[in-house]
Amino acid sequence: MSYLNALRLHFAGRFQANVSTVNNDPGHFDNAAFQPAYQQMEGPRMNPANGWFNPQGDAAWRILGCAVTSAFTPAGPAPTTDPIHGCRVADSDSQAPAKMVDLDPEQQLVSQIWGLQVRITTPDGTTLLRGDFDPAAFIDIWDRATVSQGGDADASAMYQSVLRGLVWGDVSTSPFLTALQASAATSGLLSIKFNVDAFNLDYTSPEFMTGRIVGTIGPATADEPRHMVLGRQLMASAGPAGNFFLPAGGINFCVARLDDAADVVFLDLGNALFTGQDAEILDIGDLSLGVYDLRTPPASPPPGGVIPLATLPAQGPAGYATAGWYARTAGVVALPVPASLRPLVERSPLVISSSAGGKQFSIAEAPSGLFVRADDFVVRASPGDVVVRRIYATRFGVRAAGLTLACAADDSQLQSQVGSGPPYVMTSPPVGTPTDVLQYPATLTTDAQGVALLAVTIGDPGRARWFNGGADYGIDGQVYGVRASVAEGGDNGPPNPWNFISFLVWSGFSLRVPGAPTWHDDLQPIFQQYANLYPVMLRFLDLADVESVARNQRLLSLAFGLPPEDPNAMPVTRDLSPAKRAAILAWLDGGMPLGTPPAPAAPRTTPAADPAATTPLRGGKALAASRRLALRSPR
Amino acid sequence: MIHLKSSLIAGLQAKTPSADAVIAALRQAVKLEHATIPVYLYALYSLDEQKNAAIAAILQSVVVEEMLHMTLASNVLAALDGPSPVGDPAFVPTYPGPLPGGVEAQLTVSLAPCSPAQLAAFLIIEQPEDPLHFKSVPLTEPDTITIGEFYAAISRALGELPASAFDPSGKRQVGPDLMDGAVVVTDCASAQAALQIIVEQGEGTATSPEEVDGTRLAHYYRFLQIQKGRALVPDAAGGWAYAGPPIVFDPTGVAGVPRDPDQPPYPPGSAEAFANDTFNYTYTSLLFALRDLFSGQNTSAQLNRSIGLMMSLKGQAKAMMAGIPNPAVLTGPSFEYRPTPAA
């Protein structure tokens, strides 16, 4: 099942991710060194860096102008008479916009969408389907654009999740939507996947903080993962260059699924193919889908070792490199498999290859066909919690039972920095320390469903990321990475750097006087930090001013009391620990006592910006990616 | 003083008016109570609150009460099982234009940044039938009624309805647990009490500028303080005087946004159009959320969704008007019906 299905619709349009960028620099979390300029727009080429490229962002994540571009049923394309053609895909028309949120300033590469409601509507906005999107993080970010606009504008990434709480309008006039509704009758779920790229960083452009979104909606079953396809995983090797990830074979990570009902492979190339001029898909020659002939060792296929199955042309009416193809298909194609080859396809690696301009392009499944991934790969947790994540294992797209998995710390994709330098105002705190905070088994075995439950006992990282040698309030808790992989030998293909679980572990928090939070003794640094990092809040109140906070007591009690799934939850960043949240709510409801003001401390100063300094990278993700530990100490 | 077309109450003049006629008038009342909110919000969000804090506070306080009035009228409507007009495409007024049901020749209401002229228009909107210390405006126009007369006619007609016309359960009512000052309408008496609050908060009583609860000024006098330059406070003689703290309008603390921003519309594809379209989608979403709140989803969760949309609307408006992200682009929100996202 999943969106990668004979029953599916595709949509295309734009999205907005109006994130705030003051928190892109971990040094901006240092209240004692914070400068008013950090809330101002950056200068040309980040000189000065100030609050980076969108300091006034409100974190809103919106679906803009999205149209259904095609729809399919097992019988083929939905007839043109089906009113699904002309429908729109929109976000909520009855609650505040969704929010996009980094996990942490030192793990900015799993940004999640929270509080998103997705609708399918008639052209005039009448709701035909409404569903709540399970919060999800992006994955498989890569350097997609070959005509560079710089930094984040060149990147592409994908989101996959499910819609739940489905509310259907009258879809009786649309056979397609009727079939989609029927598909969800048991699970109450739909699967949704979309790719985002071509992000605009020019604040003078009408498209500032927006990008292209192209996606697919299809069925979902209750027992399959929500954020990944149980399918054939084509694995890219890292090329030598690139900022995010540049696949050596010129094709990014992608997934295919051999259909149970028909001799068809559904292949999702939506986040796998380079773009060229005008962000159209780049022509890298006709793409050939093949399968390794098991009679030859797949790790070193001799010429003739790949049996071709089907071809996706670059040009012509169905050509992937023609205008409109990407919007129309979201990169999803159904390719026929000769019935006689189906048994081979079921147990041998798939490979996609092409050639153009004297260059070879290819991507293939691991020779072992094994793949392991956590479904939900982002964790926020507090000391004492036991967090469980479901890890799915497949072999050639089929659930792999009894497989031994290895679990180990892997902080290599987290982002920190040794030595300060523009545009960062100071050396960032280290990540992954102390190292004994996460406790989990080193090995796991998958059950009959190919699932292993990774249970992680959470310890207390203490003041691992406080500033000034641990004396000054800092970034709460610590970030960690844990990677699950196939423990057994054999050629399991190149690792996907993004395939690991990111943890934000909050520190323990205790009040100066238990049960009696006060502003000065306990809460002022928390509010000061939010006031510093999110100047957007000044449109409503001054979080650094206790009188302003007190005047807005009711609104704040409401917003801090909302669950994180609510688009109005405060803080928008979802980075407030439950312990601190409880203290704030108790204080707001308990008369808001001031406590004892601390002795005034002299603010520390940070080095002045280097007037000659510029950065070649544009955007938060690009700079974060350039600071990954993996780049500092190649494995 | 706003004059409404007398045709609005034509259906109420019968000796035994029908429930449908009362419902139609109440739907008109909900429209009317909403219609000033975008106008006041446009002025409010145009203000730099550092420079015009007192005026912003006055506008904010009036908007909160207009919201209550919309709720009170909606409660009476819901008690009669009348469908809420909130969120209908025709619910949103056209600016510039008369207030819903208003006499067109009399006052054209515009979306405009805060200014003495706009504040003068607010005074006309809120002027009582018989303002204290002011000469009464003669009622010369035929076929017109005042807002007070409009509500009096509804109130009288409510009294003519059979008791069975009212839902006694209070099931679809937005009560004081959700909104300060709200009245749960279950019968004629509570319905009339709800409408009385609307009139008195707007106009004050016949003898005092205070609202009926005696703690806050009626809207008209709140605005008049700005024109007078001082807060209206009780004086030593037991009366009232504009002798309180100064309330001074600082014209440098107003965003340079256009009057009636959709005249002409922002160019398609422009940053202004994008911000405005997104604002209008949020505004329309808020109306949908309020419609649901007034139509049986009278839960704190639904109220919170509505508040969340109000906050989103405020944040967007203040950013648009303040030139965020591009100081060269100042955008005024046009408050138009838009049930689809910006393109």
Protein described:
The complex is a heterodimer of chains A (635) and B (343). Chain A has a domain at 519-589. In chain A, 11% of the residues lie in helices and 30% in strands. Chain A has nine helices and 31 strands. Chain A has helices at residues 175-183, 325-329, 342-345, 519-533, 546-551, 553-561, 578-589, 620-625, 629-632; strands at residues 8-18, 60-73, 76-77, 88-91, 98-101, 112-114, 117-121, 127-133, 136-137, 139-143, 155-168, 190-197, 210-219, 232-235, 254-258, 264-268, 287-292, 306-312, 332-336, 350-356, 359-365, 370-374, 378-381, 386-395, 398-399, 404-409, 438-439, 443-445, 451-458, 478-486, 501-505. In chain A, the strands form four sheets. Chain A has an eight-stranded antiparallel beta barrel. An eight-stranded antiparallel sheet of chain A has the order 18-17-20-21-14-15-16-19, with no helix packed on it. In chain A, strands 22, 24, 25, 27 and 29 form a five-stranded antiparallel sheet that branches. The longest helix of chain A is centred in the last third of the chain and has 15 residues, at 519-533. Chain A is globular. The two termini of chain A are 37 Å apart. Chain B has 343 residues and is mainly α. Chain B has a single domain (3-257), classed as Up-down Bundle (Ferritin), CATH 1.20.1260. Chain B is 44% helix and 5% strand. Chain B has helices at 19-46, 53-79, 116-126, 147-160, 188-203, 219-228, 271-294, 300-321; strands at residues 3-5, 144-146, 230-234, 240-246. In chain B, a hairpin with a 5-residue loop joins strand 3 and strand 4 (240-246). Chain B is globular, with a radius of gyration of 20 Å. Mean pLDDT of chain B is 91; it is low at 134-139. The chains are: A mainly beta (635), B mainly alpha (343).
